[in-house]
Amino acid sequence: MKKYLCLLFVILFSCNNNDENKIAIVIHGGAGIILKENISKSKEDSIINKLDEAISKGWELLKKGESSELAVIETIKILEDSPLFNAGKGSVFNSDGKVENDASIMRGNDLNAGASSGTSNVKNPITLAADVMNHSGHVFLSGKGAESFAKNRNLEIVENEYFHTKFRYNQLLNKKDEDKYGTVGCVAIDIDGNIVAGTSTGGMTNKKWGRIGDSPIIGAGTYADNNTCGISSTGSGEYFIRTVAAYQVSSLLENHDYDLKKAMSKVIHKKIGSIGGDGGMIGIDKNSNISMEFNTPGMYRAYVNKYGEKEILLYEN
Fold this sequence. Notes:
By secondary structure, this protein is an alpha+beta fold. The chain has a domain at 20-86 and 180-315: (Glycosyl)asparaginase (Glutamine Phosphoribosylpyrophosphate, subunit 1, domain 1). Helices cover 30% and strands 23% of the residues. Helix 3 links the parallel strand 3 (113-119) and strand 4. Helix 1 runs antiparallel to helix 2, helix 2 packs antiparallel against helix 3 (125-135) and helix 7 crosses helix 8 (260-272). The longest helix is centred in the first third of the chain and has 23 residues, at 41-63. The protein is globular, with a radius of gyration of 18 Å.
């Protein structure tokens, strides 16, 4: 398959001490049938600019010494607030013509995590997942209970119509599923070596029966452990759940002496691919190395590595 490199930035930031050289951040905006010939130049530019805005926000927070948790939350919020991605404002419609959001976040230093699914009125689902982690004593809340908790936490509540976009509605009417795996996610490591991973999604276009994918499931869509790595997944969620994909990468690092790239490649191409699943994942290991793997024609993705080099990519490379 012809390979495309959408855009390459190499921006060298000033890193004056060893602590700053620990920081790194990587994001994705979903994987799937992402082909250059199917995307207009104006939309391509919009996607690149939004990925750049998000990754730059997270990187600046890390440079200031802020936590990886804050960097992940604020970065994902930018992606959730954009109609370009299948999360938050750009979420797809379910079979009832309604938007339902899922999200999760995990902290690598203490293995604490939070997640929510099936919410229809929380503007930024990643903030709800973070509050579940930090203020609930639970890991996973769903539906009306999650929404009640969000109101009690004074999170921003909106009408479901806030999430409605003409583009996504047309996808529902035409039963198109090109962007059905359009999850967003972020992994970051801060100057203290703490790794945090987060994922947010609107799920699959035309989903039925309260379907939940891997994005809010700790160990499938999201995982973080300071001793190994942090992972955020995107793809055919049922397959990521069945293979416990995000945790499996961590396990390969911990128990089988794999490096991050080798572990992610095995999970994506051999474990998931061999049983018919597709998608991708991003990750950062304990030494601040970044990897991005996918078995689809493209994955929206960007990173700033521990050397301060920034790269933004859309298509297969």
